[in-house]
Amino acid sequence: MSTILNLSNKIRLESTPPGLLDTYSGAAAAYSLRRLSLNYSGDAVRVRRSSDNAEQNIGFLNNELDTASLETFCSGTDGFVAIWYDQSGDDYNVTQATASKQPKIVSSGSTITTNSKPTIQFDGFTDYLFNAVELVDDATSAFIATAFSTTRTGTATQYILEMPQNTGGSRGFDIRTTSDTAILSGLLTENPSSNTNAAGTFNNNSGNLNLAMASFDEAITTNNHQIFGNGALVGQATNNGTDIQNKNTGINLGVFSNDSPNGYLIGTISEAFVYKSNQLSNRTGIETNINDYYSIY
Question: Measured at the alpha carbon of residue 250, what is the angle toward residues 295 and 100, in degrees to the nearest 5?
Fold first, then answer.
């Protein structure tokens, strides 16, 4: 019997495809409502239910969010994300301790979804998640990816992912929307200090997969800041700086600046990644992995 069970477990493990982080390792931070690595044994999120403010960790079932446990915990009420756990192995979790500022994951007992997959909903007024501890320090390259949707209107800038500079004020490195159709990746560098934007388009009222790359490899002298949307290059620019803003502090999801919040996202985020290295050689593979799961484009 033991031999049969061991053989069954071996077959099951070998039939499970590797996660995104198993194939493309080295992420500095990674957030998702699916399991990104077969080696990750932690939970996906910590959820607070509004009926009594009780909290519970929600993990995975068959490498997807355990929505059965989530909906049992939030039966008949709303659920909000207090912690989105980092699956990179660095425990760089993003959190929100203030109940009124927590994004929603369950509405009236039902898991919120985008393209039939669980997602986290930001209300455009108060919601955001963040970690203020330094994430990128003197990196010569950075690569960020987000799977998101938005139902925004108007022209006010809304931030999906932002890594602010350590002195506040200007952005460090981000993906943000600037109108109903325009999306930007912004970059602030030093030595010399300068701002560079790469602009593109996105799909309002539906899913989007946007990636941005900043490289300061001396061999790359032009178009070292690029933004990709739904599988295609949509904008690029050249920046003459030598690194990402020195001692970049933290990461914000759904907002610009956690210490003076503004630029709130009205929409959802399903996944977000940060690499401290140039991943252009892996870009199409990363995009394919995300798109195959979420059916974005």
Answer: 75
- The two tokens of residue 141 are 């390259």
Q: 145, 269 in Cβ contact below 8 A? A: no
For residues 206-230, b (16+ Cβ closer than 10 Å) or e, as one string? ebbbbbbbbbbeeeeeeebbbbbbb
- With beta carbons less than 8 A apart as the criterion, state whether 192 and 241 touch: yes
Q: pLDDT (tens digit, 9 = 90+) per residue, 168-216?
A: 545 688 999 999 889 999 988 776 667 889 998 888 888 999 999 988 7
Question: In terms of Cα–Cα distance, which of 40, 133, 150, 54 is closest to 93?
Answer: 133
Contact 175, 160 (CB under 8 A): yes
For residue 193, give the DSSP letter. Answer: T
pLDDT tens digits for range 229-265: 999 999 999 877 777 766 567 899 999 988 889 999 9
DSSP 34: B
- Judged against a pLDDT cut of 50, whether residue 164 lies above it is answered with yes
CA atoms of 264 and 198, how far apart (whole Å): 20
Q: Which amino acid is at 252?
A: N
